[in-house]
Amino acid sequence: MTDAPLNGHALLDFNSPLSDAKAYGLIGGLHPTPGQSIVDYGCGWAELLLRAVEHQPGVLGIGVDSDDHAIARGRANVESRGLADRVTLALADVTTFDTDPADVAVSIGASHAWGGAEATLEAMRARLKPGGTLLLGDGFWEREPNALARGIFGDAGFTPLPDLVDLALAGGYRLLNLTTATLDEWDDFESRWCASRERWLLANPDHPEADAVRGIVDDHREGWLRGYRGALGFAYLTLARR
């Protein structure tokens, strides 16, 4: 698209169902110390990473994502918040990005890059120092999904929450903390995703691509409200590498 919205992220703080309060709670549970590194695999525009670095002076941050628009947004935020000496954002494939093992690793909503939660846990373990901490954010089924939800996420490999925790324990981790997205966080996330396009449509009703954008929003809303709302959960697991 030319001047049509390139994605639905413009009004989002995070690219997952996550409130400010919960974000700071997750950051507080990572316990990085000055001189340590946090590497965020699939960082998007790196808002959580930037807040984590701001929270603890002396911590260094690296974020990697393959979305050039997200990385550009993140780099602008790095500069505007005076973090250029402590945060580096790389436009790269998370599965092949090469850096030293981290003290803290983050992977939120990026399990698809490795082919599921189990493979992500294995990949993150190799990218963490012994005793390091992983913040994993991934989907799970709160209840049996209907046909529409399965059609949208059928190949994502989501499991019930206890099975996701079992995967982490079997993969060489211990569980330090578990929290899940509330329905309010989900609804806020989905509403903001749609609203960026809806606002563009209000301002550009006769744009040649308006029908296409409207179709994207309508399909997304249908999948959310009649498909996975209340069925798809999202968990944040704080894990210690054994």
Automatic annotation (TrEMBL):
Matching InterPro entries: Methyltransf_12, SAM-dependent_MTases_sf
Keywords, ordered alphabetically: Methyltransferase, Transferase
MF (Gene Ontology): methyltransferase activity
Gene3D superfamilies to which the protein is assigned, alphabetical: Vaccinia Virus protein VP39
Superkingdom in the source lineage: Bacteria
Annotated Methyltransferase type domain residues: 40-134
Gene Ontology process terms (BP): methylation
Annotated protein name in UniProt: Methyltransferase type 12
Source taxonomy: Bacteria, Bacillati, Actinomycetota, Actinomycetes, Pseudonocardiales
